[in-house]
Amino acid sequence: MKKYYLFILLAMTTVFAASLSSCSETDNEKEEYPNWRKTNEAYYDRKYAEVKQLVAGGAADWKVLRSWSLNDQVATHSYDFVLANVLNAGTGSGCPFFTDSVKVHYSGRLLPSTSYAEGYVFDKSWQGEYNLSTMKPRTFAVSGVVKGFATALQNMHIGDRWLVYMPHQLAYGSSATPGAAYSTLIFDVTLVGYFRKTSAAAAPAKDGIAQQQTTGYWVYE
């Protein structure tokens, strides 16, 4: 399996879904993503209503998270939120900031489509089975990923493993990345650690130009 190193989550995206045709080339071929936008939006609306009801009833293993990008705007739609199913609750006391970098294990997939009954897995940081003793986390900036992923990360604690559902409005919208436009993304995410910047300290001058270096520390608990 090719390693994409999370490039599908970066602001500069590249469509790599040429092999996943969204339309039929012949009359004998089935469409991979039929009625995809309608299917995805209806699914997310149902999921949002279901999870909101569970949380209102006291379920501790589900979270409804308002998108960090709304700032002071009022959240009025299902797509203003990210949903998270807590598979494992970590013990860390703090959460990453938008300006932090993180180390995570992750696997991302789409909703089931014609050829993928469990949903197409478009990116994954580990090989084989999920095993914390053998997996190596990926490192990237919280600010470098889509809004839905950044929202989840800023609410996670060290050791948390969440199944995160994000609507296409907080993912890639009308872009065909990572396989079809208007895709709901489902991520299995484990937060291993995060790097907290503290200050920019002066470094020795080079060629008469003062240099700056960022200081900080990694948090793992």
Written description of the protein model:
With 221 residues, the protein is of the alpha+beta class. It has a single domain, classed as Chitinase A, domain 3 (Roll), CATH 3.10.50. 13% of the residues lie in helices and 31% in strands. The chain has helices at residues 36-56, 147-153, and strands spanning 62-66, 81-88, 101-109, 121-124, 138-141, 161-166, 185-206, 209-219. Strands 1, 2, 3, 4, 5, 6, 7 and 8 form an eight-stranded antiparallel beta sheet that branches. A hairpin with a 2-residue loop joins strand 7 (185-206) and strand 8 (209-219). The radius of gyration is 19 Å and the shape is globular. The two termini are 31 Å apart. GO terms for molecular function: peptidyl-prolyl cis-trans isomerase activity. This is Peptidyl-prolyl cis-trans isomerase. It catalyses: [protein]-peptidylproline (omega=180) = [protein]-peptidylproline (omega=0). Its EC number is 5.2.1.8. Keywords: Isomerase, Rotamase, Signal.
Keywords:
2 helices, disordered N terminus, 221 residues, 31% strand, eight-stranded antiparallel sheet, globular, alpha+beta
Tell me, what's the shape?
globular
| CATH fold topology | Chitinase A, domain 3
Main sheet overview: 8 strands, antiparallel
How far apart are the first and last residues' alpha carbons, in Å?
31 Å
Order of helices and strands: HEEEEEHEEE
Cα gyration radius (Å): 19 Å
Count the domains.
1
Number of helices: 2
Structural class call reads alpha+beta
Helical percent range?
Answer: 10-25%
**Mean of pLDDT:** 87
The second-level CATH architecture is Roll
